[in-house]
Amino acid sequence: MKEYENSLRSALIRIINNIPVLKRGGRNPFIFAASAAYAADRIIAAEYKRRAVLTQKITSMATNVAEYSIRDHFGVIKSILREMSSTDQKVAFSK
User: Is 24 exposed, middle or buried, given 0-12, 13-18 or 19+ CB atoms closer than 10 A?
Assistant: First the structure.
């Protein structure tokens, strides 16, 4: 469990640090962070070749953020990360 938490935190920080402030601008920071956590979980799942723990519904229930908001913000995160060169990130978002 602790390993997952550390991996999630690390992936979340990588995501936030790799998305320019201008591309994050105008978005609710709490919803963006929740969506980044959802994205980080998908990256971890790809790295460990396992199923993701978080779904949009679980993330929504845990954060009290609407699923459509998570989906919208995740779409932005996904398109930005797809532009990056990391193979793990491309695998995580191939679905």
Answer: middle
CATH number of the domain to which 30 belongs: 1.10.472.10
9-13, 15-19, 22-26: range with highest mean pLDDT: 9-13
Structurally, the chain folds into a number of domains equal to 1
Q: Which residues span the domain enclosing 22? A: 2-92
Convert the pLDDT of each residue in 24-51 to its tens digit. Answer: 878 899 999 999 999 999 999 999 999 9
Is 56:70 a contact under the CB 8 Å cutoff? yes
At 85 the three-state DSSP class reads: coil
More confident residue, 79 or 91: 79
